Amino acid sequence: MRPHPVTWPIIAGVGALAWGGLHEVRAFTLRRFTVPVLPAGADPLKVLHLSDAHMRPNQRRKQEWLRGLAHLEPDLVVNTGDNLAHLDALPSVLDAYGPLLDVPGVFVFGSNDYFSPIFKNPVSYLTGGTGVDADGPRVRDRDLPFEPMRQAFTQRGWVDLSNQHGSLDLDGRRLAFVGVDDPHLGFDELDDQPADTAAHLAIGVAHAPYLRVLDRWNELGYPLILAGHTHGGQLCLPGGRALVTNCDLDPERAKGLHTHRLPGHEPSWMHVSAGLGTSPFTPVRFACRPEATLLTLTAVDSPGLSG
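Predicted structure:
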C-alpha cells in the first residue's frame, strides 16, 4: 500500500531528523580558509579556530577527533567559547584539547561555560533569540566549572580575553588581541581603544557575533574578527543556508569567512565558526556539519580563498 500523499512530508521530516541526529551531528569536518591580513611580504600563520564544543563526558568520538587536530601544527589556537554541556565535562575538554593547550592560544567564554544547558522550546530558537532572556539577565547560579577551566587554560599559556586586551609573540611577530565576555548574555564591555597598528596583526575575539561588537571593532580598525555561537544555523536548508543565527547577525553570514564594514571604514575579515556541538536537548544538525577551521593568514598582497 502506498503512503497517503499527506504523509510524505512527515516521512521526509522524520528522515531528515534521523539523518541529522544519527549521522550529521557526528560528521566532524575541518574547514580551511586563507585570509590576507598580514603585512606585505609576511610569512603565513596557521590559526586553528575552535568553538562551541558543548562537551559531554560520553562524547568519545568528538574527543578523539579534537585530539587529532594537533597534527595540523597550528601557530595559534583561538577558542571562542561554549566548551561545556555537562557539570562533569571539564576533564573531557582538557583531554580532548590535549597538545593544543601547549600551542599559543587565546580564549573567551560563552553562556555554556557558565550555565549548564536547560530545556527550551526548540520552536523559540526559530522565532527569535537576539539577546539575553526576556526577563533580564540570568539570575540562576553559574554552575559550570568555568573558573577551574579558566585556570587550566591560562596555566598552559592561553590568554584570557574576557573584556580585556592581550598580546602574543609568535616567532618574533607580535599579535594584539581584544576580547569580550559573552555578548549574548550582555556580559560584553566594549572600549574605545584603537587596534594596535604597531603589531603585525590585531584580532578581535568574541563568542557571539553581535553587530554592536562587530561595528565597534571595525570602527577601531581590527582587520580580523573571530566568533562562534551561531552553530551555523544548526538546522539549515539543503545546501547549507541558515534560517537563524541566535543573534542579530544576518543568516547569510551565520558561518564561514565574510567581511564586515561600516561606511567610511576599511572592511574587517570575519570568521564565524559553525562549532562542534549542540545543546544536549537538541542533538541534531542538518545541512550544517560540526566543524573546526584552519585559517591560514597570509600577506595582504595574497588572495583570500575559501575551502
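Summary: The radius of gyration is 19 Å.
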